[in-house]
């Protein structure tokens, strides 16, 4: 019996060595940087106290990081003379919250230099932002390493476009290993923040051969969106009535035909997802549970461990 135990221990050790370091775990920084979570939380809370709209920015940053090359902070790298990085791709130009990550990194480098990865900071900041805005709290594994590749072309195929219908969304999300329930739950991230007119204006004129505007929209809401767009392409439209609060009103909006993006409203139009939207609109606790499960899974997408990556000294540059 005892020898079997030692065999298992030995295999775990071999696995760790082969991976080039410790695997992801809840307590990854327990010895090396025990105050990592309170430090990130304080920085995030201070930033959100000054600008509550940044909760949305931090959540989206984590999503756009994880769906492109995995959760490796590739989204934070700046372009260089020979390389256009992910953050300068058209789909990422409205990402926000980089300076909050920089600030947390600065404090962490003072406390425990060279230990905490930028990818872990992004994951923690998104979690803390959701909680700050009234959403669910969940524990996350740590130990992600930072990647060295960041190319704008990687964003073209990995991120969903706002013009996709439910089949298209299911396709993109299933490529990353997500179920239909998880797609709908994670789309509930749109309970926070805004979309700019350029992301939804294709719904407002010459929609198709028989409709001027997207017929899945409530007509009064179509007027609201037209009004927003009268201020130009970068005019912002909140996704729901409580733009800085994490709640289930996004799903109630979809039931009324008040989804901002085509990719939002399609979740209520499609029989494949309508019931899930109804569940989440009816019961916030069910939405929160599914959202937190989805976020824990998203935070582990194609994570680099051990020698597969590095711990950047500056989140915007490779070492
Ligand atoms: C289902 C597919 C999705 C599509 C097509 C999509 C698309 C978009 C688009 C077009 C915007 C507005 C960008 C702009 O106009 O500046 C946006 C904003 C946002 N998205 Fe998504 N998204 C999706 C899923 C997600 C997921 C899974 C999350 C997080 C879990 C998320 C979080 C956000 C947040 C928080 C904002 C607001 C950002 C801000 O106010 O700065 N999205 N999304």
Automatic annotation (TrEMBL):
Residues 1-23 form the signal peptide. Ca(2+) 2 binds at residues 191, 240, 243, 247. The keyword Metal-binding applies. Its cofactor is Ca(2+); heme b. InterPro entries: Haem_peroxidase, Haem_peroxidase_sf, Peroxidase_pln, Peroxidases_AS, Peroxidases_heam-ligand_BS, Secretory_peroxidase. Pfam families: peroxidase (PF00141). Disulfide bonds join 33-112, 66-71, 118-315, 197-229. GO terms for biological process: hydrogen peroxide catabolic process; response to oxidative stress. GO terms for cellular component: extracellular region. Ca(2+) 1 binds at residues 65, 68, 70, 72, 74, 86. CDD domains: secretory_peroxidase (cd00693). The keyword Protein biosynthesis does not apply. Its EC number is 1.11.1.7. The active site is at 64 (proton acceptor). Residues 23-319 form the Plant heme peroxidase family profile domain. It comes from the Eukaryota. It is found in: Secreted. Binds 2 calcium ions per subunit. Transmembrane segments: none annotated. Belongs to the peroxidase family. Classical plant (class III) peroxidase subfamily. Belongs to the peroxidase family. Ascorbate peroxidase subfamily. Removal of H(2)O(2), oxidation of toxic reductants, biosynthesis and degradation of lignin, suberization, auxin catabolism, response to environmental stresses such as wounding, pathogen attack and oxidative stress. These functions might be dependent on each isozyme/isoform in each plant tissue. This is Peroxidase. It comes from Ananas comosus (Pineapple). The lineage of its organism: Eukaryota, Viridiplantae, Streptophyta, Embryophyta, Tracheophyta.
